[in-house]
């Protein structure tokens, strides 16, 4: 078993992009905890605009209370740990995607070269055909 590249308890400082990815995981986790409350508010707010604030007040307050209850630094730490734990997997997936693009690019280049070669041969055959016709006309 290999040792992890990152220490999950004392991680390295992250770039702004990486921090944004951690925040996405964090928000997703919080929304996951509060899914029933969010769903109840969304169902209440369907086809309402300004009135949703008053009509759906209890659902909104329940949703906000749930979000506040789960939006804690500990949850953000768990999201950060999840980000570090899945970092290698995401990197490998991204590299596989880039490799697939590069392989497809190589295939397209090979197809273009084959097509150019085919066109060159066709052009040579056409030129040879024209030369033979000209020679036949000169012999007549």
Automatic annotation (TrEMBL):
Biased composition (Basic and acidic residues): 113-131
Keywords: Chaperone, Disulfide bond, Membrane, Mitochondrion, Mitochondrion inner membrane
Protein name: COX assembly mitochondrial protein
Organism superkingdom: Eukaryota
Keyword Membrane among record annotations: yes
Pfam families cross-referenced by the UniProt entry: Cmc1
Keyword hit for Mitochondrion: yes
Localization of this protein: Mitochondrion inner membrane
Main location group: mitochondrion
Region Disordered, annotated ranges: 110-140
Organism: Aspergillus indologenus CBS 114.80
InterPro entries, sorted: Cyt_c_biogenesis_Cmc1-like (IPR013892)
Lineage: Eukaryota, Fungi, Dikarya, Ascomycota, Pezizomycotina
PANTHER family: COX ASSEMBLY MITOCHONDRIAL PROTEIN (PTHR22977), COX ASSEMBLY MITOCHONDRIAL PROTEIN HOMOLOG (PTHR22977:SF5)
GO cellular component: mitochondrial inner membrane
């Amino acid at each position: 078993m290999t040792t992890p590249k990152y220490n999950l308890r004392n991680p390295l400082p992250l770039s702004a992009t990486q921090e944004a990815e951690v925040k996405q995981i964090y928000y997703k986790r919080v929304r996951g905890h509060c899914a029933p409350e969010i769903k109840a508010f969304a169902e209440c707010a369907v086809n309402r605009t300004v009135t949703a604030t008053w009509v759906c007040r209890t659902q909104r307050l329940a949703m906000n209370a749930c979000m506040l209850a789960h939006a804690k630094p500990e949850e953000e730490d768990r999201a950060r740990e999840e980000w570090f734990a899945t970092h290698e997997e995401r990197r490998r997936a991204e590299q596989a995607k880039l490799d697939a693009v590069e392989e497809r690019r190589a295939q397209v280049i090979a197809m273009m070269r084959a097509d150019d070669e085919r066109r060159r041969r066709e052009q040579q055959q056409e030129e040879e055909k024209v030369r033979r016709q000209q020679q036949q006309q000169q012999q007549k």
